UniProtKB/TrEMBL annotation:
Its EC number is 2.7.1.59. One of its GO terms (molecular function) is N-acetylglucosamine kinase activity. InterPro entries: ATPase_BadF (IPR002731), ATPase_NBD (IPR043129), NAGK-like (IPR039758). Residues 7-313 form the ATPase BadF/BadG/BcrA/BcrD type domain. It comes from the Eukaryota. Coiled coil: none annotated. The gene is NAGK. Pfam families: BcrAD_BadFG (PF01869). Belongs to the eukaryotic-type N-acetylglucosamine kinase family. This is N-acetyl-D-glucosamine kinase. Keywords: Kinase, Transferase. SUPFAM superfamilies: Actin-like ATPase domain.
Length: 339
């Protein structure tokens, strides 16, 4: 009897499913709507995933009633074990004919499985931010990732709101600064189609969208490239320092040797502005006190494939199948630094 399994990468904006057979051959690759388990109902997530499974079976030329041996779900927000177990149980009851077994991990865990054979670090800075690692014992460690109310430091949302705060604080005299706010203010009004800054209440409260506010980050980066605005440069440098500090914190928790070369996977749209982050990022990697590790060399990687490959790798392991795709095929060097 043939064995088929699927790996799913479920993000806030889109979901990717990859269907493979027991030999590790990719049979289908499909995308659908977002499936963040904190932003969508369980039923809505189930429907997206099952629709993708049926689409993948159709593309692969397999009967619709083909039952997967295992379905590995890597979902944004899936970091609470109790909630994950409930999710798996509900899925199994709702769709018993789809798969023999279901396993769920976080999307950051799947990214780690895509880029590294064993231990590794992933630093995400997109709409939100988080840092996750697998240490030598197989433990999953974390730093940040607590959402926009108390976390997401160094993310696109953080950069955007930091810039907006600066405009208000400097103009109203709450913060003393020699930097001019006119560039950020003009971009703010134009990007969000406001005629005056008082209309910000509607954006922040009446029609709040984290992704919409975070989208301002890209325009800030463009403005900095155009005219080298000092205030924008300052904000991006601070974001870079915060992201570097995430790595320092996670390396400390992993108890890595000071002499070891550090390998980190980076993900998220903010890294497109690395030229603006770079100086602060390197500064954030510097030892703050004696208990901090000394980072002597760091290699940043970016993925060349979907993180759903990591979910497939997990599924293959659970199904006792071979997995011929090496991590070196899934990543490339983004930045290499000797400190």
């Amino acid at each position: 009897m043939s064995v088929y399994y699927a790996g799913v990468d479920g993000g806030a904006t889109k979901t990717t499913l990859i269907l493979m057979n027991e030999e590790g051959t990719i049979l289908a690759h499909c995308t659908g709507a977002g499936t963040n388990i904190y932003l969508c109902s369980s039923i809505a997530v189930f429907e997206v995933v099952v629709d993708l499974i049926y689409s993948a079976l159709r593309i692969a030329g397999l009967p619709r009633n083909t039952k997967l041996s295992i379905l590995a779900l890597a979902m944004s927000g899936a970091e609470d074990q109790e909630r994950n177990e409930k999710f798996v149980a509900e899925f199994s009851v709702a769709y018993p004919a789809v798969t023999e077994s279901v396993v769920i991990i976080s999307d950051s865990h799947s990214a780690l499985l895509t880029a590294f054979d064993e231990n590794g670090i992933v630093l995400i800075s997109g709409t939100g931010s988080s840092c996750r690692a697998i240490d030598f014992t197989g433990r999953l460690l974390g730093c940040g990732g607590w959402g926009h109310l108390i976390g997401d430091d160094g993310s696109a949302y953080w950069i955007s709101t930091k810039a907006i705060r600066k405009v208000f604080a400097i103009e109203e005299g709450l913060e003393l600064s020699s930097n001019d706010t006119s560039c950020i203010k003009a971009k703010l009004l134009h990007h969000f189609q406001l005629s005056r800054k008082e209309q910000i209440f509607e954006l922040l409260y009446d029609n709040f969208s984290k992704a919409k506010i975070a989208s301002f980050c890209e325009f800030l980066a463009e403005a900095s490239s155009e005219n080298g605005d000092e205030l924008i440069l300052e904000i991006f440098a601070e974001a870079g320092k915060i992201l570097g500090a995430h790595i320092l914190a996670i390396v400390s928790a992993m108890h890595l040797e000071n002499s070891q070369k550090l390998e980190v996977l980076i993900m998220g749209s903010v890294w497109k502005s690395f030229d603006l982050l770079k100086k602060g990022f390197i500064n954030g990697l510097m030892q703050r006190h004696d208990k901090d590790p000394i980072i002597k060399e760091i290699v940043l990687y970016e993925l060349t494939v979907s993180p759903a490959i990591g979910a497939c790798r997990l599924a293959a392991k659970k199904a006792n199948c071979s997995f011929p795709i090496s991590v070196s095929e899934c990543r490339r060097v983004f930045f290499h630094l000797h400190m």
